[in-house]
Amino acid sequence: MSKVDRYKDSTHCSAGCLGLSCGMPLNPETAGKRFDIGGPEILTYREMMDQYADARGITRRIIFRVPVLTPLLAAYWVDLVTPVSSGIAHPLIEGLKNEVVCLDHSIDQFVPIVKTPFKEAVKIAVSEEKEGPGITGF
Questions:
Q1: 6, 40, 65, 87: which could form a disulfide with 115 (CB 3.0–4.6 Å)?
Q2: Which residues have CB under 8 Å from 44's CB, separation 6+?
Q3: Domain positions in the chain
Q4: Which residue from 30, 11, 35, 32 is spatially nearest to 95, judged by alpha carbons?
Q5: 79-90 tens-digit pLDDT
Q6: What's the CA gap between 107 and 64, in Å, rounded?
Q7: What is the DSSP letter of 40?
Q8: At what angle do helices 45-56 and 118-131 cross, to 10 degrees?
């Protein structure tokens, strides 16, 4: 199984991060504590790519599993087949080796916010890319 299928992430929409960052200083019970923040779902990177394609209304990409693929080789492959700049792609690919899953949801009792599902967050980001920030109600 490739890292794209295996590693998971509980990505949080930036508006949720801002809401938490603004709400924590207002609550004295959060002083001096550390909290994990994460979205409402845990997805593999492959699931995120599929949901991104769905949210953008584009065809899901074919993903090939290869027995051995280092982050460096993967980065070179992305350089070869996509228009994404290496300054963006390489650090993202390097990060695929790390799971980023929020296991501690104790922040929810101090700062209640609505957690945006990944696909909806992509739609919001895409609409802001087209229309400008604030248009979607953030």
A1: 40
A2: 4, 5, 6, 7, 8, 9
A3: 3-65+99-131
A4: 11
A5: 998 888 989 989
A6: 38
A7: S
A8: 40
* Amino acid (one-letter) located at 79: D
Give residue-wise pLDDT tens across range 17-69. 666 666 777 778 888 888 888 888 888 888 988 999 998 889 998 887 877 77
Which contiguous run of DSSP H or E holds residue 14? helix 14-23
Classify residue 67 by its DSSP letter: S
At 88, the amino acid letter reads I
Over residues 60-104, the pLDDT tens digits come to 988 878 777 788 888 888 899 888 898 998 998 888 778 888 888
